[in-house]
Design goal:
- The chain is rod-shaped.
- The chain folds into three domains: 85 residues, Winged helix-like DNA-binding domain superfamily/Winged helix DNA-binding domain (Arc Repressor Mutant, subunit A); 99 residues, D-Maltodextrin-Binding Protein, domain 2 (3-Layer(aba) Sandwich), CATH 3.40.190.10; 103 residues, D-Maltodextrin-Binding Protein, domain 2.
- A hairpin with a 2-residue loop joins strand 9 and strand 10.
- The chain is α/β, with parallel strands linked by helices.
- Helix content is 41%, strand content 24%.
Length: 300
Amino acid sequence: MTFKPKLEDLRLFDEVVQLSSFAAVAKAMGVSPAYVGKRVQVLEQALGVKLLHRQSRRLKLTEEGARVVHWAKQLIGGMESMLDELDSLRSKPRGLVRIASSLGFGRRHVAPSLGGLLEQHPELQVRLELLDDLRDLPGAPFDLDIRIGNDLAPHVLARKLATNHRVLCASPRYIARRGRPTQPADLVHHDCLVIKERDQPFGVWRLSGPEGAVSVKVGGLLSSNHGEVVRDWALQGHGIMLRSMWDVGPLLSEQALLEVLPGYRQEADIWAVYPVKLADSARLRVCVEWFQARFRSLAT
């Protein structure tokens, strides 16, 4: 065998055997009988065997031809089964979905919503991993990343789930002791509680305000990669933090925390990031739509 046979030629050969006529196959395909004969000849050359005896207007299978048509039917059936299965996967949500999210948001919002998702789609399985390092999905072992922040690489596929922003805030106790900053540059003289966020360099707060974008390099005695730890430090009066409204909104309403520099904020929307188009995966599509509906109330 000098080269591999084409599935299209095997399919055509199977049609020839079923109809016992080059002309009938040619008419069904909208091609000439000569073309059909040529494709059968190419298939014979690829396999290195004679497939048909041509006796006047009749076609008779050789022993090798009978074996080939048997395998051709299995190959064609297998291909059709594969396509049917893939079509089912695109239309019916089932199978494992590996989801990643950040520590705080994942624990507070992603994890509690998964029970309802599986009640609606019982053929799904979910594996949730909470971590705080940014990953691009094509090279990571995840199907879906629920992330916060607007620094998305241009090539990623993503859908915004909710509007969110980060604000500067501190406890009344800290403000009574250290006062309020009046401009971003004043932050360098304050105790700042730094969180290692997934989408920003450590200790650099990029803000937007009345004069446009500004970056401030901040520091302090306390820092962590866990936002809830930093939030607790802020509540205890240890410094100023930059934290998402999905987390501190209720604390600001209760005045357990007070916003400082209220004219400045950091846009940090909530996104679903995935490696393939949602139209090609029912599993991912229903997950993204579920999270979008659940997180709509988090919009600020």
